[in-house]
Amino acid sequence: MDARRKTSTNSSKPELIQRMNRSVSDPSLYINRETSWLAFNRRVLEEANDEGNPLLERVKFLAISASNLDEFFEVRVAGLLQRIEEGFIDSGPDALTAQQERELIALETHEFVQEQYDCWNLKLLPALARENIRVLDLKDLAPEQEAFIDAYCEKEVDPLLTPVTVDPAHPFPRVLNKALCIALLLKRKRRASGTYMGVITVPRALPRLVRLPSHTGTDYVFLADLLTYHAATMYRGYDIVSAASFRVTRNSNLYLEEEETRNLLESVRTELHRRRKGDAVRLEIDANANAEIAKRLQQTFELDDWQIFHTKGPVNLSRLFNFYEIERPQLKYRTLVPRELRLPASSNNIFTELRKRDVLLHHPYDSFDAVVDFIESAASDPHVISLKQTIYRTNRDSPIVGALIAAAAAEKEVTAVLELKARFDEASNIQWARTLEDEGVQVYYGLVSLKSHCKLCLLVRHDPDGVTRRYAHIGTGNYNPTTSRFYTDISLMTASPEITSAVHSVFNYLTAYSEAPSYAPLAISPINLAATTLAQIHREAEHSANGRPARIIAKMNSLLDKNVIEALYRASQAGVPIDLTVRGMCSLRPGVPGVSDNIVVRSVVGRLLEHSRIFYFENGGDDEVYISSADWMPRNLYERVEVLCPVLDSSLKQRMKSEILAAYLADNVKVRFLDRNGRYSRATRHRGDVSFSAQDFLIAVAEGTATAADIPEPVFPRSSSSKRRKKQVVSR
Questions:
Q1: 473 in active site
Q2: φ, ψ for residue 604 (rounded to 5)?
Q3: Fewest beta carbons less than 10 Å away: which of 182, 197, 257, 513?
Q4: Phi/psi of residue 515, each to 5°?
């Protein structure tokens, strides 16, 4: 048990009753969702500031923090402003009104942006320069670089630009969401007074970092600087008084009336077109911009002062991703080579193996190729007669979609449940839907008002022994081979008749809204996943109150549901030790005396995005382990179709406990602990402590250089025959 927890498992009965009588509905016990998300993004920024990380990885972390903040404004801030505009007075578990949330966001986002630019200007730029990777000011260019710039503008830039001078005949251009723009304050050379606004919208086809010829290193110039320099050639007859780059972020929520639409695909397509021109929610502009330019832009986009962000550097830090293209392996993490699934000689294919045992894969440490191969078998295996597949997000050249098309071409029964409303993947999914339908796949869009977020694949096969069996894949992450290389997720492949029958029932629910009498051993939302989760937590509280073994270990992306948090507080009051690893938002306050003394909340942020959802319950000694597509959030429990699946195989359950969960609980390198005040702090290491990074350990396991015996301070009892090796797993 973690040293931070003050255990109360030995409390007397009267003391236990007194603790459990304390209210768990007090708003002060809940951390605001939006500030919790901002705290998560600060943990991402910490990785950019961490000199222990390779330099180009640090630049990448800064870019990720900027991309995250973009989405926060596009979705969360946009939704908040719309609630205020429409007069909604609802509040969350923390009882803050929308106006109070807006004030918090205004303060914290400005502080965060300042921290981002401090990181870039004071740390990363000098560190890059020390590695001969330079971002040059135009005044510092060598003659051959100036010549290159002139030629580049003439050949590559000019043909794509449309400069506009705003006047009654030329209205302010409709600036698209997050497009780089240059604003100019102009004076006509032939007129003595009056100024004009000029605007250049930069096509996305142009790189935001332009690489320059150099004999002494790797030199770049920001495109915005280049265009400001080049603007004089586009505005002949004007004097340029001042110029500044800017960028507008717009409301990117889709507002669909699904009950009233006749064609969901066309409705989503129409809303996507509108989204590109949604209401402005943020303006980023050069910190040294002329005050008149800033004022005109603010008035044009109808923004309040707090929505204006003056940037001391490039207005789009997410474009710093381009630095990662530099071929300098020593400035990046060592390449992770995933472990391939190798079948024993006694199994000539995956189906033979699955009839003997379930297969569990931990991505990206275990290659996602095994999942792709499982699905591609639908097309290549003559014994497979049917394939059902959910798709939430996938990659551009998806082998999963290719397998569905090939299976349909082979005249197999192929069904795809494709979620059109997967945020920011809507356009891609519309295209996939049309492609699949054209190729003969039966495509469904899930259920009205519910996103289909579960990760399921179901094959039906006439096996050589004459028996027709179902085979299923159940995952915690998307069917996306690209993101599977840097998202941590769990895959379970099984021929269990109970599980595969339940998966079949889930597909019937998705395509026909047909509810089964039971989905056991699965739980699904919105039908019974919330009730099942609450019952599991309450059961641990009862075990603890009655002196039986009880414990909860849960790993997820976000914890926001008030009902679940109240149940966890009650379980803590009953003496249940609770370890939560929550990557992102967490509204629960740990360590509150009499309420959450027995709860420890961790967040692990490292080179890989923690995405897996794993839930462990000690259950009086008959322990259970589950994987799920759902976080403990209202949207997952009540507004989406999600699946919770048990890991039934005893050896796989042991791996989940002693290798995966135990590794995260032992991390003292990339872990942060949440305190009762909503602050996160790194683990305290003492002299002699072994540095242990869960992600580095799991990479070592995949490489065959570490085992569960290398985890310090085992979370679960080890077999007495297990010999602990005295080997330190060093953080990379």
A1: no
A2: -110, 115
A3: 257
A4: -90, 130
The residues that bridge with 280 in the sheet, in sequence order, are 250
User: Using an 8 Å Cβ cutoff, are 336 and 136 in contact?
Assistant: no
Report whether 456 contacts 643 (CB < 8 A).
yes
Q: What is the DSSP string of 3-27?
A: TT----TT--HHHHHHHHTS-S--G
Q: What's CA 128's distance to the chain center, in Å?
A: 27
The answer to whether 388 and 457 have CB atoms below 8 angstroms apart is yes
The C-alpha atoms of residue 584 and residue 606 are separated, in whole angstroms, by 13
Reading the block at residue 696, the tokens are 């580095």
Total residues belonging to the chain: 732
> Torsion-angle region of residue 164: left (phi > 0), alpha (psi -120 to 50) or beta?
beta
∠ CA 293-299-302, rounded to 5°:
135
DSSP letter, residue 570: H
Give the CA distances from residue 486 to residues 335, 362, 489, 492, 670, in Å, rounded to whole numbers and listed in that order: 11, 12, 9, 18, 16
Q: Could you say which DSSP state residue 314 is in?
A: -
* The pLDDT of residue 720: 34
List alpha helices for 89-212, DSSP H: 98-118, 125-130, 143-152
Which contacts of 628-632 are long-range, i.e. CB under 8 A and separated by 24 or more positions? Answer: 628/476, 628/529, 629/453, 629/454, 629/455, 629/475, 629/476, 630/453, 630/525, 630/529, 631/556, 631/557, 631/558, 631/559, 631/560, 632/533, 632/554, 632/556, 632/558, 632/559, 632/560, 632/561, 632/564
Q: Please, what is the average pLDDT of the chain?
A: 91
34 touches 76 (CB < 8 A): yes
pLDDT in tens, 116-140: 999 999 999 999 999 999 999 988 9
- Domains along the chain with CATH numbers: 13-30+527-710 (3.30.870.10), 99-331 (3.30.1840.10), 350-521 (3.30.870.10)
- Provide the β-strand partners of residue 523: 644
Which tens digit of pLDDT belongs to each residue from 501-527? 999 999 999 999 899 999 999 999 999
- Per-residue pLDDT at 194: 80
Which tokens go with 383?
A: 């014994």
Residue 419's identity, in one-letter code, is E
Model pTM score: 0.92
Judge whether 292 and 25 are in contact, CB under 8 Å.
no
Q: Which of 322, 272, 329, 290 is nearest to 54 (CA)?
A: 329
158 vs 411: CA distance, rounded Å:
52
Under DSSP, the state recorded for 659 is I
Tell me the torsion sign for CA atoms 155, 157, 159, 165. negative
In whole angstroms, give the CA distance from residue 342 to residue 350: 10
Q: Pick the catalytic residue: 230, 310, 363, 453?
A: 453
- Flag the least confident range among 163-172, 341-350, 462-471, 639-648: 163-172
Task: Give CA separation, 499 vs 65, 496, 518, 521, in Å.
Answer: 39, 5, 12, 6
Angstrom CA distances, 337 to 268, 686, 703, 704, stand at 39, 32, 8, 11
380 by DSSP, 3-state: which?
A: helix
Nearest-Å Rg of the Cα atoms of the chain is 28
SS3 90: coil
Q: Residue 120 has which token pair?
A: 């870039």
